[in-house]
């Protein structure tokens, strides 16, 4: 499994250094949670901050837009250096148009699903997507508990050949369930940034065997 540390759990006073620290610790991607205090009840950062930390790593930027109107901001995040852009199926923008805009700008489009959204809702779009992001917590905050029933969605998506990322409550134990379900990418905030040794935490999650290295 690939591991994408979520910068939501980093020290925001030194985002650039924290990003470089994750690269040194062996992260595969850098996950950036953009929240607008409308689609979700929390407010984080926008494209200028993503652009400001872009020079600190060569790792792919995996930008998760938890915003009501993703299409309106796609160009800003493309210019800021996003490599993968996930937007929510439950948001207000046209799914087809948003996918098209992301791909036309040279990035990889992904659709994210809130826990209550049935997996069937994303199946018609799979051929146009590079990834599906299955939320394993209600989007908005780090530090919540993993929703194991979401692994049924992962199994369905894998049966359709999708590339699948999960996000929320990933720790050495829940990474085992993710790996067994066939997850390709785990996003992890708390369990990486609050670990005494981020490199060991990332290696442990990647193994997905429940054995803390
Ligand atoms: O998108 C989100 C929350 O909305 C996630 O990326 C969390 O930030 C993951 O944090 P942990 O659950 O790993 O602490």
Can you walk through the features of this model?
- With 213 residues, the protein is α/β, with parallel strands linked by helices.
- It has one domain: Alpha-Beta Barrel (TIM Barrel), CATH 3.20.20.70.
- It has 8 helices and 8 strands.
- Helix 2 packs parallel to helix 3 (70-79) and helix 3 runs parallel beside helix 4.
- It is globular.
- Bound molecules: 5-O-phosphono-D-xylulose.
- The site of 5-O-phosphono-D-xylulose (5SP) has 22 residues, from strand 2, strand 8 and helix 7.
- 5-O-phosphono-D-xylulose binds next to strand 2, strand 8 and helix 7.
- Its cofactor is Co(2+); a divalent metal cation; Fe(2+); Mn(2+).
- It comes from Anaeromassilibacillus senegalensis.
- It catalyses: D-ribulose 5-phosphate = D-xylulose 5-phosphate.
- GO terms for molecular function: D-ribulose-phosphate 3-epimerase activity.
Write the layout of secondary structure elements.
Blueprint lengths: L1 E4 L9 H10 L5 E6 L11 H7 L7 E6 L3 H10 L4 E5 L6 H10 L3 E6 L17 E5 L15 H9 L4 E4 L6 H8 L3 E4 L1 H4 L4 H10 L6
Parallel strand pairs: 1-8, 2-3, 3-4, 4-5, 5-6, 6-7, 7-8
Bound molecules: 5-O-phosphono-D-xylulose.
The CATH homologous superfamily is called: Aldolase class I
Number of domains in the coordinates? Answer: 1
Number of strands: 8
**What are the low-pLDDT stretches, counting only 5+ consecutive residues below 50?**
none
Strand content: 15-25%
Can you identify the CATH class? Alpha Beta
Please tell me how large the radius of gyration is.
Answer: 16 Å
The largest β sheet comes out as: 8 strands, parallel
Q: Count of helices?
A: 8
User: What small molecules accompany the polymer chains?
Assistant: 5-O-phosphono-D-xylulose
């Amino acid at each position: 499994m690939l591991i994408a540390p979520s910068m939501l759990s980093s020290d925001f006073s030194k985002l650039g250094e924290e990003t470089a620290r994750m690269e040194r610790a062996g992260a595969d991607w850098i996950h950036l949670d953009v929240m607008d205090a409308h689609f979700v009840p929390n407010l984080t950062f926008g494209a200028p901050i993503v652009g400001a930390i872009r020079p600190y790593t060569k790792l792919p930027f995996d930008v998760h837009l938890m915003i009501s109107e993703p299409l309106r901001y796609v160009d800003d995040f493309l210019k800021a250096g996003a490599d993968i852009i996930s937007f929510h199926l439950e948001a207000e923008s046209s799914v087809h148009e948003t996918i098209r805009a992301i791909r036309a700008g040279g990035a990889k489009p992904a659709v994210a699903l809130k826990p209550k959204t049935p997996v069937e809702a994303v199946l018609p779009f799979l051929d146009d997507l590079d990834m599906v992001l299955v939320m394993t917590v209600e989007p908005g905050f780090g530090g919540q508990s993993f929703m194991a029933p979401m692994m049924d969605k992962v199994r369905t998506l894998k049966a359709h050949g999708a590339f699948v990322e999960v996000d929320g409550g990933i720790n050495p134990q829940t990474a085992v369930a993710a790996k067994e379900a066939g997850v390709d990418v785990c996003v992890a905030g708390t369990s990486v940034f609050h670990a005494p040794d981020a490199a060991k935490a990332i290696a442990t999650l990647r193994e997905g065997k429940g054995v803390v290295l």
